[in-house]
Design brief:
single chain, alpha/beta, 2 domains, 6-stranded mixed β-sheet, two-stranded antiparallel ribbon
């Protein structure tokens, strides 16, 4: 409830929160360097926190679905053998359905979860009436007596309580989709009371019969409604799993836009809802891991030992960033800041640390799993962030001419009909690959447009600040397009169309008579200082294209092998989502020129940075191709090779 006061243009989540820390630069003074270290530390903490959330995303679907289906074993022990296969089937179907998004079935989620909250609340009240002694749980003295009696064992048992808290971090991440008020109202008046009543009812069931301890929820159900509630519980766990999967997609999408994660394929499943996305690579990874966990652990109780440590880590790290933002950058009355700061430093942080310590003992019994997954994503993000920043600095130093100097130096070159769109990674000047292009071919298109796409550390960029269009001369322009990390990335042809329409420029079509019609000159729009960021992901580097084989092996395959391959390709396309179609005949007079950088690791690098550099180069070569990301028809693309030493 407190942390939701810190929204980033209405958006929540760890990346949105860390983006509120000012983008301080490294300076000569102690104060400036201290601020830079705070900013860098906040970025690293947000990456670690997001990685732990991804670790939780691997465990939440299996433990949720297994916990619901284990109700079958409770009522019908003879069918216990079908729990694991049925859980695998449900999870596989859930992940296979991700490519379609939740737009068509999302309207059912709210009523189902509302019904679920009402049912568990009503069942809790029913069981409390059977044994009101469970209400004594509100007396804190029993907590003291519990620890006094059980000592260290009780402290370890307390780690299981964190299972009651899992998912609360998702509420802050989903704030942009629902808003503060709906989340606060639904939590305070629907979810929280229902959950409390449900746990009190399960306590009452165990007081009535201590043998109910191994499955208190299902054993507290009245017989006539047992199977309907089991079905409802299964649907509720599927929806809960969907929320974590969607959260993982959202985190990766933001990380890609901020330059923290390699470029991957991101499919937008809804034309009307910005946040509904599907990332095939992450979906396949989660599917494989979830199926492995279900088969390996078999029961939700076994999986519970792997749950909790990463959740507590997420809560602590989010609290640390929250404190930094409140102290440094929250512009409000000092007394309000103190009111929001004191509960976290005095109350919440110690409780979170206590939970973390209680779950630390689970590390060897399964807690290492989400920690290892989180560590894997942390290493990937840190290496990619470091490599991208290094490559950006090299590209910035690679600017050899200003735009005016480039025009003057090449004014005598032969011009060919059409428009040439040159994708540049810097807004300060022309990179080396362009001078290499003009020296090699000694021609230029009749209309030249330099396009620079930047992504900023804000959720959304307003339309007022979206584009800047500069006219260098009659037939040469420079376009800067800006996007936030929550926005759907626009295709390069659409960027050009929107920018020219905004400023009444006419891009030439087949007819030469439309060339150079201009109504506005030297148009410039700049973002506020707080919006600008050095971490904008504008490297623009693409992966090398491997050479094709001289002889195709297809002719050597039998018809049955070709049929199997065709079926596999269709299944893989279904699993990963089809590429967005680009009309190769659209804007025939517009050609796109992109750098094709071959990044090589400098052999003189220090030992401890050489291997991270090699990992970065590997990820760069296998990241999403720039032409697909920018939705450019390959028939309209010219790529200019360049060698960069990292």
């Amino acid at each position: 409830m407190f942390i939701m006061a810190l929204d980033n243009d209405g958006e929540g989540g760890v990346f949105a929160l860390s983006a509120l820390v000012p983008n301080w630069k490294w300076g000569k003074t102690f104060a400036s360097r201290s601020k830079y270290l705070i900013k860098t530390g906040s970025t690293i903490v947000s990456i670690i926190c997001a990685s732990f959330v991804l670790g939780d995303s691997v465990i939440t679907p299996p433990i949720s679905v297994l916990s619901a289906l284990e109700g079958i074993e409770t009522e019908a022990p003879s069918f216990a053998s079908i729990v694991v296969p049925l859980a695998v089937i449900i999870l596989v179907l859930l992940f296979l359905a991700q490519r379609f998004g939740t737009a068509k079935v999302g309207y059912l989620f709210g009523p189902i979860m509302l019904l679920w909250a009402a049912v568990i609340g009503a069942l809790g009240i029913y069981n409390i009436t059977l044994n009101p002694r469970s209400l004594l749980a509100f007396n804190p003295a029993y907590g003291y007596f519990f620890f006094q009696k059980n000592g260290a064992t009780g402290f370890k048992m307390f780690g299981g309580v964190v299972l009651c808290l899992t998912g609360v971090e998702a509420m802050y991440a989903d704030m942009g989709h629902f808003g503060k008020l709906p989340i606060r109202l639904s939590w305070l008046f629907v979810v929280f009371p229902s959950v409390i009543l449900s746990y009190l009812g399960q306590s009452a069931a165990m007081l009535n019969d201590p043998s109910n301890w191994n499955s208190p929820f299902f054993k507290s159900l009245p017989q006539p409604i047992y199977w309907p509630v089991l079905v409802l519980a299964t649907f509720a766990t599927i929806i809960a799993s969907q929320a974590m999967i969607t959260g993982a997609f959202s985190l990766i999408s933001q990380a890609v836009a901020l330059g923290y994660f390699p470029r991957v394929k991101i499919v937008h499943t809804s034309k009307s809802h910005e946040g509904q996305i599907f990332i095939p690579m992450i979906n396949i990874f989660l599917l494989i891991m979830c199926v492995i966990l279900v088969i390996a652990f078999q029961t939700s109780a076994a999986l519970a030992s792997a749950f909790g440590l990463a959740v507590c880590g997420v809560l602590i790290l989010t609290t640390l960033i929250y404190i930094v933002v409140v102290v440094i950058n929250w512009k409000c009355n000092i007394f309000i800041r103190i009111a929001y700061l004191v509960p976290f430093t005095i109350l919440f942080m110690p409780i979170q640390a206590f939970f973390f310590a209680a779950n630390a003992s689970k590390f060897v019994t399964g807690g290492w799993l989400p920690f290892l997954i989180g560590l894997f994503f942390t290493v990937i993000m840190l290496i990619w962030t470091w490599g991208s920043a290094t490559l950006k600095r090299i590209n910035k130093d690679d600017v050899v001419l200003t735009f005016d100097e480039f025009h003057k130096q090449n004014s005598s070159l032969k011009r060919i009909h059409g428009v040439g769109v040159f994708f540049v990674s810097s807004s300060t000047g022309v990179p080396r690959y362009l001078t290499k292009f003009t020296k090699t071919l000694t021609v230029l298109p009749e209309i030249v447009a330099f396009v620079n796409i930047k992504y900023y550390r804000v959720p959304f960029v307003t339309e007022k600040h979206r584009f800047s269009v500069y006219q260098i001369n009659e037939n040469t322009f420079r376009i800067v397009a800006r996007y936030g990390f929550f926005e759907k990335k626009v295709a390069l042809p659409e960027v050009i169309a929107q920018a020219t329409k905004r400023f009444n420029y006419t891009i030439p079509d087949a007819s030469p008579t439309t060339i150079g019609v201009v109504q506005h000159k030297d148009v410039e729009i700049t973002l506020p200082e707080s919006v600008e960021s050095d971490t904008s992901n504008d490297t623009g580097n693409a992966a090398p294209t491997p050479a094709s084989d001289a002889v195709s092996p297809e002719s050597q395959k039998t018809p049955s092998e070709n049929k199997i391959k065709a079926l596999w390709q269709r299944f893989w396309q279904y699993l990963t989502g089809a590429e967005e179609e680009v009309d190769p005949n659209a804007n025939k007079d517009i050609h796109y020129f992109l750098p094709r950088d071959t990044v090589m690791v400098n052999k003189k690098r220090w030992f401890f940075t050489r291997y991270p550099a090699q990992v970065f180069v590997f990820m760069l070569r296998n990241s999403r191709d720039e032409t697909k990301r920018l939705q450019i028809s390959p028939e309209r693309v010219f790529e200019v090779g360049n060698v960069v030493h990292l």
